[in-house]
Amino acid sequence: MTADAVVIGAGIVGAACADALSTVGLRVAVVESRVIGGGATAAGMGHIVVMDDSEAQFALTHYSQQLWRTLSPEMPAELEWDPSGTLWVAADEEEMQAVAHKHAYYVARGVNVEVLDAAQLADAEPNLRRGLHGALLIPGDSVVYAPCAAAWLLARAQLRRASLLADRVISIGRHSVHLTTGDRIESPNIILASGAWARELLPAIPVRPRKGHLAITARYPGFLRRQLVELGYLKSAHGHDTESVAFNLQPRTTGQLLIGSSRQYDVTHTSIDAPFLARMLRRAIHFMPALEHLRVIRAWTGFRAATPDSLPLIGPAPGREGLWLATGHEGLGITTSLATGRLIADAIAGRTPAIPPEPYLPARFPQ
Amino acid sequence: MIRLRVNGKPVSLPEGSVVAAAIALSGLDATRSSVRGEPRGPLCGMGICFECRATIDGQPHQRTCQIPVRQGMEVSTDAG
Ligand SMILES: Cc1cc2nc3c(=O)[nH]c(=O)nc-3n(C[C@H](O)[C@H](O)[C@H](O)COP(=O)(O)OP(=O)(O)OC[C@H]3O[C@@H](n4cnc5c(N)ncnc54)[C@H](O)[C@@H]3O)c2cc1C
Ligand code: FES
After folding, report:
1. Is B4 in the pocket of ligand 2 (CB under 6 A)?
2. Which of A47, A143, A224, A314 fits a disulfide with A82 by CB distance 3.0 to 4.6 angstroms?
3. Over the stretch A19-32, which tens digit does the pLDDT of each residue have?
C-alpha cells in the first residue's frame, strides 16, 4: 500500500502526529504493534505541565499546553480532562528561593502563577505535613487520561481518512516500512514515534529507556485538590543519577490518587521493584503523612524515552531522507505530544511553525 | 458458626470462610460499585485484582476474598 505519511507507533505522540498530519491534508497510515496508547502513554501520569528548565523546554511545553486547552471543550468525558493546576511544594528556604525565581520567570512570559506562603499552602492542601515553606501555584496546568486521549486523537485522524494497521514495523527502508506480514507501505514520509522502543528500528538514536513506577489508590474524593510536586523533583528528573524518587501526587477525577514518581536508568525488566516502590511511597508519606492510611490498589511501571539533553527529537533524521523522528520526550511526552505533531506536520507541509523548531532537531547530536 | 452482619443483615457461616462468601450468602452479587455506579465483585479470589473491596468494621477498601470472617463483624458494601 501507499500513504502520504506513515506513523510508527500509536502512543500519544504517534496519535498527535496522525491527527496533525491528517489536518494538513495528508493520507496517513499508522502502524501499532501492541495496543493504542498502551506503551509509556498508559503508564504516565498525564500531567499537562509547563516547565522552565530551558527556554526550549518552556517554549514546547507552553505551546503544547495551549493546544491541549484549545482541544479541551471537544474532549469526550473518558479523557478525564481536569484543569486542577499544579502546586510546586517548597520544603525549605532554598526551595522557596527557587519558587521566587520560577515566579519571576513565568510572570515575564505571561504565565499566570501565584506564590503561596506556608499558611496558604496548609490551607490549600490540608493533608500536607506541617513545616513546609510554601509553594508556587500554576493554575493553568491540568491532567488528561492519556491512553484515551491517544485513542481519541487517532479516531479524529481516521475521520480524515487515516488508516490504522495492527502490525509491527520490522525495518525502515528508503521511503518504505516493512511489516511482519511481509507487506510494505511506500511513503515519502515516515515518522518514527515508537517511544522508548525507537532503538529497535534505529540503533544509533540517542534515546535511553528510563524506568518509572506509579501507584494508584482507591477513591478518596476531596483528599487532594491539585497536583503536588516537590521542588526537589527537578533534581530527580534532571539529574542523571541512576536512581531517584520524588514526591508527585495527582488527584484523579474519580477521587483516586496517583502516586509518583521514580526514575531508573539501565533497567530493562518491566516488573515492579518492591524496595524501590516502597522508597517512592515513603517519600510521598514524608510529605503527606495521611497517605499512610489510604489503600493502594495497583502499581505499575513504564519506560520514558530519555535523551542526553532532556529535550525530545522532533524533525528529520540526519542522513535518512524521508525519515522523521518524534521520540525522546522523557517524562513530558503527554504534555508535548500535540506540539510535536504540529512541528512535524508544519515541517512536512512547508508551513511556518508557531515556535522555533531548531532546539528539537535530531541533527543537534553527532551521528 | 460465625455470625456477622452484611449491610445490617445477619449472616452465619462456618469458621474459615472469607468475607466475600458472607456477602454472597447475604444475597448480594456485588461488594461495591464502580465510578459509574456499576456493580463490582470478586474476580480473582486471590488478593490480586482488588475488585472485591468492601468496608469491614469501618475500614474501607478491604479485600473481602482474603479476610476470614470473625464473630460480630460489620460488613458494608456502600463504599465505592
Ligand atoms: C511513570 C511515568 C510517568 C509519566 N508522567 C508524565 C506526565 O505526568 N506528563 C507527561 O507529559 N508525560 C509523562 N510521562 C511521559 C509520557 O508518558 C511519555 O513521554 C509519552 O507517553 C511518550 O509517548 P510515545 O507515544 O512517544 O510513546 P509510547 O506511548 O511508548 O508509544 C510508542 C508506541 O509505539 C509502539 N511501537 C513500538 N515499536 C513499534 C514497531 N516496531 N511497530 C509498531 N509499533 C511500535 C508501541 O507499542 C507503543 O504503543 C510519564 C512517563 C512515565 C513512565
Ligand atoms: S477477588 Fe481479586 S482481590 Fe479479591
Report:
1. no
2. A143
3. 999 999 999 999 99
Give percent of chain A with pLDDT exceeding 90.
95
Say if residue A239's pLDDT is above 90.
Answer: no
Chain B nearest CA to A219, separation (Å) = 7
> Are residues A291 and A225 part of one domain?
yes
Q: How confident is the model over A99-113, as pLDDT tens digits?
A: 999 999 999 999 999
The finding on whether B52 has its CB within 6 A of some atom of ligand 2 is: yes
Q: Which residues of B7-43 are buried (b: 16+ CB within 10 A; e: fewer)?
A: beeebebeeebbbbbbbbebebebbbeeeeeeebbbe
Contact A218 B35 (CB under 8 A): no
Assessment of whether the complete model's pTM goes beyond 0.90:
yes
Ligand 2 centroid – CA B44 distance (Å): 5
Is residue A133 assigned to a domain?
yes
CA angle A49, A242, A292 (to 5 degrees): 65
**In total, how many domains does chain B have?**
1
A295/B80 Cβ within 8 A = no
A:B CB pairs within 8 Å: 16
User: Scanning every residue of chain A, which has its alpha carbon at the shortest distance from the alpha carbon of B62?
Assistant: A295
What percentage of chain A exceeds 70 in pLDDT?
Answer: 98
Residues A212 and A198 in one domain: no
Report CB contact under 8 Å: B61, A218.
Answer: yes
Domain with A333, as residue range(s), is 5-49+146-207+309-364
- Cis peptide preceding A261, ω within 30 of 0: yes
Minimum-distance ligand to the CA of B54?
A: 2
Closest CA to A136 of A153, A108, A115: A115
Domain identity same for A196 and A126: no
